[in-house]
Amino acid sequence: MQTSPDRHEYPAHWEADVVLRDGGTARIRPITVDDADRLVSFYEQVSDESKYYRFFAPYPRLSAKDVHRFTHHDFVDRVGLAATVGGEFIATVRYDRIGEDGTPASAPADEAEVAFLVQDAHQGRGVASALLEHIGAVARERGIRRFAAEVLPANNKMIKVFTDAGYTQKRSFEDGVVRLEFDLEPTDRSLAVQYAREHRAEARSVQRLLAPGSVAVIGAGRTPGGVGRSVLGNIRDAGYSGRLYAVNRALPEGQKELDGVPAHRSVRDIDGPVDLAVVAVPAEHVPDVVTECGEHGVQGLVVVSAGYAESGPEGRERQRALVRQARTYGMRIIGPNAFGIINTSPRVRLNASLAPEVPRPGRIGLFAQSGAIGIALLSRLHRRGGGVTGVTGVSTFVSSGNRADVSGNDVLQYWYEDPDTDVVLMYLESIGNPRKFTRLARRTAAAKPLVVVQGARHGAAPQGHAVRATRLPHATVSALLRQAGVIRVDTITELVDAGLLLARQPLPAGPRVAILGNSESLGLLTYDACFAEGLRPHPPQDLTTAASAADFHAALSRALADDRCDAVVVTAIPAVGEGSVGDAALAEALRSASAAAPAKPVLVVHVELGGLAEALSAAASTAPQVGSGKPSQTAPSPAPVEERFPATDAPEGAHLIPAYPAAERAVRALGQAVAYAQWRRDAADPGKVPEYEDIDEKGAAALIDGLLARGQGLTLGTDETCDLLGHYGVQVHRALPAPTPAAAAEAARALGYPVALKATAPHLRHRADLGGVRLDLADEEQLRRSYAELTELFGAPEELRPVVQRMAPRGVDVVVRAVIDPAAGAVLSFGLAGAASQLLGDTAHRLIPVTDREATSLVRSIRTAPLLFGWRGSAPADTRALEELLLRVSRLVDDHPEVVAVTLEPVVVASHGLSVLGASVRLAPPPARDDLGPRTLPAY
Q1: Which of 113, 495, 774, 818 could join 902 in a cystine, given CB atoms 3.0 to 4.6 angstroms apart?
Q2: How far apart are CA 500 and CA 659, in angstroms?
Q3: Who contacts 622 (Cβ-Cβ below 8 Å, separation ≥6)?
Q4: Which contacts of 706-713 are long-range, i.e. CB under 8 A and separated by 24 or more positions?
Q5: Residues 519-577: pLDDT tens digits?
Q6: Residues facing 537 on adjacent strands
Q7: Contacts of 762 (CB under 8 A, 6+ apart)
Q8: 361 forms bridges with which residues in the sheet?
Q9: What are phi and psi of 814, to 5 degrees?
Q10: Helix (H), strand (E), coil (C) string for 780-839
């Protein structure tokens, strides 16, 4: 640690773990006086060329003076950071504050010189780019706004680090040196560069886990049974394409194999690299295993061992220590308490999990935080392959357990660009970084469907999950996920239903649905279900129970050719008697008709027609292939389809038809696909955040700074609230206090009749139903009479806190709120005032900043929106004025993160214009935004 002469304490909050370009990790931390030996050792391993580029002259070794200079910092004007792996330096960066003349300076000088040095063995891993992000954040914190760097023209790598960062910069050339100067304020381009680097690094880190060239199972027992031995057998039986090793320290001397797999007593004994280690030893032995793996160069760990955060406080500390230890060696972890991972790619064929069977290769990526739910999802996909639909199989499966390191965000980064994954299904019990998850989900959903079911919706996250708390209710989080394009479902059954439809059927162009089949009753049930899901069904076409396969083919062909139809639901019941359509014949009829019009989705609702479902899915069953190994232990496996029906495989890429056992399930999946397709179309043109000429951003900032100078957080008074909102063009009808009848009369004369008299006591505020409001008081006599009535009914004026307010035009009362949640970010909410939002929860939400298109959809997305558009002959409200108000509030909160809460209630939206009758604003120092800072891994 630093010695007493240093001006500042050691800044521990600058320490961070980062993922590098190749998927490995490094730790970034401040350099201290204790690092002298590490610095000297690091410098000795740097090539002469790199030293020349750093010092512009041959510089074979550091002098004692150099070591002192590079390890003694005040953490304000002189700062040094190091990137470490295994506790040793692999790169350094430092800045020195300078004045206008280029000599050392102190604040208020706001420029600093910056210089890097990266070990040659670690160049090209993105270390310098990560260090630049972190040293830039440190400099901004210390009041430095601009960096200058002098680089030799031949040092192209370092010039590229600076120029690719995305900052506003200028370049000059003098005395044979390139001088770069750049502002440190984040720009749209610098953030885009940062996100792109984050994506590539995190995707690569997951790819290294899911497609390793070699795997060691540590803790494979000497006798059959047990977790480690089971995982070893599952990897072997799946036909893993890489090198597989068994490790058990208790193996007898001389034993070289275990179940036909090369066996060793330690990872260190393995001759060759090990990319992935599956750890299945008791928790108390895991640290020793991690050390061995780190020293051997293992790239990642799947820890199936239990006894961590899920077991209580002691286990939570053990889990934190595990993550810190693994990251020290540059390794990432899936788990602990994980079920495992699966990759069905024929290039990998990895089943490093406790699942005894591997699903058939397919296009679905599956993520489950819970091992039990992971088992259930794999089992359902397996059964659907043999009995109901089995439209496609699984590309990759990840069960993260306690997700102490690798999370759903990391796996999303991988699946976004994975060519083998078309649909992503996720079971989440907690979201560690909602702001980042929403950003990644929006990007992923624009390219491929993302279906999510959330567990623990009405309680705390599982004990093993360390997550930041959010003040937002589950309904709000769900709404924000839907805004990001996530298909939100409530059960794992719906998760599979939606996933199977989206995996191999095209997205519908609209909500118009044709229904045809051989059962009038089943058709009517489907018709009703369509209305319940907001679809627009055509009347069902009854083909009668005598319909042949040719009849189904002709009817489906006509429906698909109809320009008024966007999707078709086929209903089928068992037929009996001679000439009745067979399962294989019906399946082939539907397939061939669908293939002729591949742009429209087709679904089948069947009743107890196992044979039909199997025939429909014959080309891509998720059940194990015939002769693929031992029978499944997760679900009964029916006889192979090929033995029942002479069905031929559909061509690769064909749109295979999903089948469902109930109309409601099929239509619900279709409704989700329709909504998602509409989101995709809307996302192509998200709109813009409008500029308003009357917004005074600087004036609002000055007012906020002055108010916050009073304290850390405060709720503004009426005048201050009106002034701040006025800077953003939001005019509030002032309410004047009326502690006496005479004061009420004086206030009314100042405002002008007619007026309203309101009680603002907490139990009566915004509760017109309780009688605490008197409207349209035309003169002083009515005002005084109403004042007497209120005090007689509810008590003395001191309790009522009466106010007088000028009457606003009649209209629809709404409420507008904005809040900054520490986990999710800034959220704008809208609903009708009163029971609709308070009792029924009819409120819509959008992430700030809100675009003009989002404001339009926000107003229309509540269930009671018809009241704003002339319901039952009433005058339509001025929704354009309402949308503008929403956009102005969004701008206020986005421009000034110190505005942590805004409530406008009620807002009366009349036929022309609106009136804000009540407003409150709360200010506080803005919460830290990790999405604007440098890339870091969560520190659980």
Answers
A1: 818
A2: 9
A3: 359, 360, 362, 381, 382, 384, 385, 390, 392, 393, 394
A4: 707/923, 708/898, 708/923, 708/924, 708/925, 712/924, 712/925, 713/900, 713/922, 713/923, 713/924, 713/925
A5: 999 999 999 999 999 999 999 999 998 899 999 999 999 999 999 999 999 999 876 55
A6: 513
A7: none
A8: 394
A9: -130, 170
A10: HHHHHHHHHHHHHHHCCHHHHCEEEEECCCCCEEEEEEEEEECCCEEEEEEEECCHHHHC
- Pick the closest to residue 569 from 529, 605, 597, 593 (CA basis): 605
Q: Which amino acid is at 774?
A: R
> What does the alpha-carbon distance between residue 746 and residue 917 come to, in Å, rounded to a whole number?
20
DSSP 488-528: EESSHHHHHHHHHHHHHSPPPSSSEEEEEES-HHHHHHHHH
- Count of Cβ atoms closer than 10 Å to residue 927 Cβ: 14
Candidate from 80-89, 177-186, 288-297, 711-720 with smallest mean pLDDT: 711-720
In angstroms, the CA 886 to CA 562 distance is: 41
DSSP 8-class letter at 85: E
Q: Are 155 and 190 in contact (CB under 8 A)?
A: no
What's the whole-model pTM score?
A: 0.84
Tokens matching residue 574: 């068992």
Token readout for 60 is 């074979």
Question: Secondary structure of the chain: what % helix, strand, coil (to 5)?
Answer: 40, 20, 40
- Half-sphere exposure (CA, 13 Å, Cβ side) for 906? 25
How do strand 843-847 and strand 825-832 relate by DSSP bridges? antiparallel
Taking residues 368-384, what's their average pLDDT? 81
Range of weakest confidence among 379-388, 414-423, 891-900: 379-388
Is a pLDDT exceeding 60 seen at residue 464?
Answer: no
Q: CA 302, 305, 308: angle at the middle one, nearest 5?
A: 110
CA dihedral 428, 429, 432, 436 (to 10 degrees): 30
C-beta separation of 303 from 335 below 8 A:
yes
Q: Report the distance separating Cα 898 and Cα 886, nearest Å.
A: 18
Rounded Cα gap, residues 29 and 275, in angstroms: 27
Token representation of residue 773: 């409001």
> pLDDT (tens digit, 9 = 90+) per residue, 86-118?
999 999 999 999 999 989 999 899 999 999 999
**Closest by alpha carbon to 623, among 345, 353, 360?**
360
Distance (Å, whole) CA 555 – CA 560: 9
C-alpha distances out from residue 624 to 148, 210, 319, 621, 746, Å: 61, 21, 36, 8, 84
Residues near 48 by beta carbon (within 8 Å), at least 6 away in sequence: 58, 60
> How many angstroms separate the CA atoms of 453 and 803, rounded?
48
Q: Could you tell me if 169 and 182 are in contact, meaning their C-beta atoms sit under 8 angstroms apart?
A: yes
Distance from C-alpha of 554 to C-alpha of 543, rounded to nearest angstrom: 11
Strands (DSSP E) contained in 315-356 are 332-334, 340-343, 350-353
User: In 347-364, which positions are buried (b, 16+ CB within 10 angstroms) versus exposed (e)?
Assistant: ebbbbbbbbbbbbbbbbb
Q: 491 phi and psi, to 5 degrees?
A: -135, 160
Is the torsion defined by CA of 180, 183, 188, 191 positive or negative?
A: positive
- Do residues 374 and 399 touch, judged by C-beta distance below 8 A? yes
Task: Reduce the secondary structure of 436-453 to three states and give it as a string.
Answer: HHHHHHHHHHCCCCEEEE
CA distances from 122 to 45, 118, 265, 720, 839 (A): 11, 7, 31, 56, 59
Which one, of 432, 424, 427, lies nearest residue 406 by Cα? 432
Q: What is the CA radius of gyration of the chain?
A: 33
pLDDT digits (tens, 9 = 90+) for 431-450: 777 888 899 999 999 999 99
Q: In what order do the strands lie in the sheet with 773-777?
A: 735-737, 802-806, 755-759, 773-777
Q: Dihedrals φ, ψ of 664, to 5°?
A: -60, -40
Q: How many Å apart are CA 233 and CA 118, to the nearest integer?
A: 43
